[in-house]
């Protein structure tokens, strides 16, 4: 690690894993332990996890790196209150997740701590859940499922239901996940356009069979389904608000597997109530796990509890990718996928 390589430390770097990395596989974990000393704690709620980190620092530290495992929930945010006890030795925090909105980047940058995410591991399963949510919203599955469970049959939906074939999908955020969504949606005969802060090369657009919308407004004006696949950043927070909903086609389908706060919640509910948005497929929510009761109760929404990437294959790949970030940083001073700079 920069200024803390095994040679300069006189020992292997110590890594604290918050959750067991067993999904990476025994052989991979053993290989990791040949480079780093690994210490594991199991997360609980915020208070319990803070205490466990402090206790681990006293008994097994200091720690040069932290591995943030899957299944965390209830102890975020990742900030001074959680990781402060590991200063000043802490140099890298590697997350198995793609998103990093839960990290207090100002604090990490101030303390020159590298933060890394996973780029490849969770991209395809997240795209899979986006397709699932899109199809569910098009076919009004939440309303129809509720109808059957309540003893009814084929009631409550506006017929005929919607087919993806021939419809235009507009993707906001054409990173790894967005590209998988584009590829998978074309199996259903959809035309795909996208909006991204940087346009893809003409060669990649041709390979993916996608068109650049030119602007967010143009994409919203001309898409039958809008899929949000961008990360949450200061620039994307509230990206879709009342004015953006006005620019969408009447009866649009909205899918969000990015982050809940990319969409203004009050404007979103108003758009659902007015019919501007016919239905939605949601894996993410602003303020989760405290989900607005409107989304819990509305049969216009196909909902999932932000578990789009929680598959056995994805977990294994995510742990390996995160641990590779740590070993790369330990050996070269550079991580594979660092998301902050200082």
Automatic annotation (TrEMBL):
SUPFAM superfamilies per the UniProt record, alphabetical: Formate/glycerate dehydrogenase catalytic domain-like, NAD(P)-binding Rossmann-fold domains
Descriptive protein name: Glycerate-and formate-dehydrogenase
Keyword list, A-Z: NAD, Oxidoreductase
UniProt organism field: Colletotrichum chrysophilum
CDD domains attached to this UniProt entry: Mand_dh_like
Recorded coiled-coil stretches: none
Domain D-isomer specific 2-hydroxyacid dehydrogenase catalytic: 77-340
Taxonomic lineage: Eukaryota, Fungi, Dikarya, Ascomycota, Pezizomycotina
Domain (D-isomer specific 2-hydroxyacid dehydrogenase NAD-binding): residue spans on this chain: 132-308
Entry keyword Ribosomal protein: no
């Amino acid at each position: 690690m920069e200024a803390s390589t095994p040679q300069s430390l006189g020992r292997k770097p110590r890594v604290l894993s918050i959750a067991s990395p067993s999904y990476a596989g025994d052989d991979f974990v053993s290989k990791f332990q040949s480079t780093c000393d690994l210490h594991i704690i199991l997360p609980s709620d915020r208070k319990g996890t803070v205490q466990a980190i402090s206790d681990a620092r006293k008994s097994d530290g200091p720690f040069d790196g932290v591995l943030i495992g899957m299944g965390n929930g209830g102890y975020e945010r990742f900030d001074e209150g959680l990781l402060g006890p590991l200063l000043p030795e802490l140099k890298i925090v590697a997350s198995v997740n793609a998103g990093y909105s839960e990290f207090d980047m100002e604090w990490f940058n101030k303390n020159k701590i590298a933060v890394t995410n996973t780029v490849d591991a969770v991209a395809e399963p997240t795209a899979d859940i986006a397709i699932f949510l899109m199809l569910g919203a098009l076919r009004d599955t939440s309303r129809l499922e509720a109808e059957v469970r309540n003893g009814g049959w084929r009631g409550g939906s506006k017929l005929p239901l919607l087919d993806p074939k021939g419809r235009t999908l507009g993707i906001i955020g054409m990173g790894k996940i967005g590209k998988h969504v584009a590829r998978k949606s074309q199996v259903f005969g959809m035309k795909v356009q996208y909006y991204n802060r940087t346009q893809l090369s003409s060669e990649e657009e041709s390979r993916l069979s996608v068109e650049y919308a030119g602007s967010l407004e143009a994409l919203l004006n001309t898409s039958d389904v809008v899929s949000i696949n961008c990360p949450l950043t200061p620039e994307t927070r509230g990206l879709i608000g009342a004015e953006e909903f006005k620019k969408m086609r009447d009866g649009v389908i909205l899918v969000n597997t990015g982050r809940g706060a990319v969409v203004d919640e009050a404007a979103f509910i108003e758009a659902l109530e007015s019919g501007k948005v016919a239905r939605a497929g949601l894996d993410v929510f602003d303020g989760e796990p405290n989900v607005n009761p409107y989304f819990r109760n509305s049969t216009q929404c196909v909902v999932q509890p932000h578990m789009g990437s929680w598959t056995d294959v994805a977990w294994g790949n995510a742990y390996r990718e995160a641990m590779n970030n740590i070993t790369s940083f330990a050996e070269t001073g550079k991580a594979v996928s660092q998301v902050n700079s200082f």
